[in-house]
Amino acid sequence: MAKDNSKNTSKQFSELLAEVRSGKIAPFYVLMGEEPYYSDILSEEIVKASITEDEKGFNYHVLYGSDVTDAQILEYARRYPMMAARQVVMVREAQMIKKQDNFEHYFNSPQPSTVLIIVFTNKSMDKRTAVYKAAKSGGVVFESQTLKEEQVAGWIESYVREKSFTITPEASALMADYCGTELRKLVMECNKLISAVNETKSITAEDIEKNIGISREFNTFQLGNAILTKNSAKAFRIIAHFGTNPKQFPLVVTMGSLFYQFSGLLKFLAAGGRPGANSFSIASKAGINPYSAKEFEEASRYYSLRKTMEAIALLRRYDSMSKSSDRGEASDNDLLREMVSKIIF
Fold first, then answer.
1. What does the entry give for GO biological process (predicted)?
2. Domains of the chain from N-terminus onward
3. Which of 20, 68, 100, 109 could form a disulfide with 72, with the two C-beta atoms 3.0–4.6 Å apart?
């Protein structure tokens, strides 16, 4: 039953959420990791599945790690519920608990009528300890990871699709630029857009410009399009704009977006994509957003499979260079300009 950290946090989150909503409740949960959004949703759903609103008055206890010891938490956990089948003990900011040794014994023999939820914020339990090993074998341990920059646009598309809406690749790239990897912000802005376009069920770049105020002309998606079509004048105009706004357009985010676009092109070409082919059918076969089909069909006029792989290799090299002393005295904008020159020419 134990759940632990993996490369696919979103998949693990979905599986655990489905278990909870089906009524399969564990005696205790340890929710931890870099991304608090997942813990927020899971803890809320676990409470909802464990006790009713009427039962909360006497059977729902919220404690904070800065205010209690592990012994005090377990005193609550070992109590019996009042006029209910279960009680829930929620411990927030668990990383603030100075000593956690007493949890080991409880994890090995939990109170059956208690659902204990221990939430670490931006931290994780030490995996070398006996406490962690007991938690992993006796209950549910979920560890979240922050999205990588190149995963953000795809995450946005998945989230919007789950709400029965669609979003264009340009719109998802704009949102990724604006929100970064913080899921709480991403969800808030996505929900705002969903409410704004409720009747059309589709989110476009125009909707984002209208409702959030992000420029459609100077963004990483447009830079990627310019590179994919070898439009050097447009690409360097956008790069120059990025150079005057380095905080708004950090290189790490730009690299992530470009990697996402070139990875999509690689999948398109590997699935047989080429000029004049049925791009929508190929995009579906490759698992690519159909909105990107025409974009990649156009890009296939300029990039072969080999050239695309070379571009991705350059992206990886310059991304690594930007994070090391190999960059010398070059600024982020200098590195971006040099890399794009090598890709286009």
1. DNA-templated DNA replication
2. 9-144 (3.40.50.300), 155-216 (1.10.8.60), 217-345 (1.20.272.10)
3. 68
